[in-house]
Amino acid sequence: MTLGADHPGSGKHKVAIVGSGNWGSTIAKILAENTEAQSDVFQKEVKMWVYEEKFQLPDSHPKYDSSKHSKPSNLTELINELHENPKYLPGVALPEHIIATPDIKDCVADASILVFNIPHQFVPQICKQIEGQHLPYARAISCIKGVSVSEDGISLFSDSIGKRLGIYCGALSGANIASEVAQEKFSETTIGFSPDDSKLKPLPEGLPKVDHELIQNLFHRPYFHVKMIDDVAGVSLGGALKNIIALATGFVDGLGWGDNAKAAIMRVGLLEMRKFGKMYFSNSCRTATFTEESCGIADLITSCSGGRNHRCAKLSIERGKSVDEIEQSELNGQKLQGTLTAKEVYEFLKKEGTTEEFPLMTAVYNILEGTVKPEELPDIIDPKSPKRSPSPHKL
Ligand SMILES: NC(=O)C1=CN([C@@H]2O[C@H](COP(=O)(O)OP(=O)(O)OC[C@H]3O[C@@H](n4cnc5c(N)ncnc54)[C@H](O)[C@@H]3O)[C@@H](O)[C@H]2O)C=CC1
Ligand SMILES: O=C(CO)COP(=O)(O)O
């Protein structure tokens, strides 16, 4: 295949990002910094698809201009004018060559590298809109933390995006609280990427091979260190399942039970994550990915301390409200992934008849449903513990 009009700027990869939330905007910043720094391999401009909505810029914003901003504006227009996402990543300067667009076709049409970064519940509808609009030889990376559960069973978004669009899709996941990465505080991430080029549409002549080195160069920053591995399933699963465990630690923190209790939940959570990978993705997933990589243990630790799932679960206990209510009132449009993932994983386990093998993940679903109390967690994760009455010697 030779380069044609379908790939403007022949010989250089064009990168597009689908999504512009808290993490989407942060990854767009990273990509744009790297496309600018490596102009021999990448076209500088990065298109970013934005789910269009109206946003009222607060009059306290340093660039507020009453002649333009007295009424709510399209978020896309604000991003392109301010070079900032004032709703989902306020206060962080974005490179000017990030071009926000509400038109998904325009975003993906000439991109040879597609980066997916949206809450997982929106993936099917977005893929439907992208189908047939993208370059057939495009390669993709999913930064989405979630799993796809359907009648057919459970699958990873890297797989479902790849199958749906007929392209290869790897996965990026790690201990990456977006606000910290956006402020260029050091973190590590893991990218699972193992395409079999012989089965993919060939890249046009002259376009550099999309391999570990190229993908690492696209994402690695001095403050964002990338480790490349082949285990796409392990990377994807770690990011999805840790959100359920983060809810559990939020419940425990909400009860004021302290760090030992939280460590116990995290320990059991890590074991259940590893077991899940072993039972359901044994062909594709390395269990060591959970215990050795940023996308496993490290993401579990950070999410159980500073993540949104943890924070909302903690507040739900403290305020006596549901996690969904807290998400609505506290996150300003950002989306939790743990609540839906807990439900999806529970439904999958129920169908498999294995809920008892995953007592913690099952308990999180039941707590969200209101059928189990968070105070029951110690006995749920240790069902064989002798039942004794509480100590009478309390001060
Ligand atoms: N925020 C973080 O610290 C991190 C998030 N992630 C993952 O990144 C993925 C994306 O999350 P964020 O960028 O944080 O998003 P977010 O939670 O900050 O924002 C929600 C996004 O969903 C969009 N949206 C709302 N309704 C929509 C609809 N009907 N269709 C399509 N989009 C719609 C909003 O425009 C917004 O961009 C998630 O899977 C999350 O788990 C991964 C690492 C860190
Ligand atoms: O995935 C995350 C950090 O790595 C963020 O998790 P939350 O979605 O719970 O904020």
Automatic annotation (TrEMBL):
Start and end residues of each Glycerol-3-phosphate dehydrogenase NAD-dependent C-terminal domain: 231-377
Q: Which residues bind substrate?
A: K145, R308, N309
List the biased-composition ranges (Basic and acidic residues). 375-385
Q: InterPro entries this protein is in?
A: 6-PGluconate_DH-like_C_sf (IPR008927), 6PGD_dom2 (IPR013328), G3P_DH_NAD-dep (IPR006168), G3P_DH_NAD-dep_C (IPR006109), G3P_DH_NAD-dep_euk (IPR017751), G3P_DH_NAD-dep_N (IPR011128), NAD(P)-bd_dom_sf (IPR036291)
The record's region (Disordered) falls at 375-395
Enzyme Commission numbers on file:
1.1.1.8
Q: What is the name of this protein?
A: Glycerol-3-phosphate dehydrogenase [NAD(+)]
Q: Where are the compositionally biased (Basic residues) regions?
A: 386-395
List residues binding NAD(+).
G19, S20, G21, N22, W23, G24, F122, A178, R308, K335, Q337
Organism the protein comes from: Ascobolus immersus RN42
Keywords of this protein's UniProt record, alphabetized?
Answer: NAD, Oxidoreductase
Q: Which family does it belong to?
A: Belongs to the NAD-dependent glycerol-3-phosphate dehydrogenase family.
> What Gene Ontology biological process does one annotation of this record name?
carbohydrate metabolic process
Active-site residues, Swiss-Prot/TrEMBL: K242
Domain Glycerol-3-phosphate dehydrogenase NAD-dependent N-terminal, by residue range, is 14-194
Report a single Gene Ontology molecular function. Answer: glycerol-3-phosphate dehydrogenase (NAD+) activity
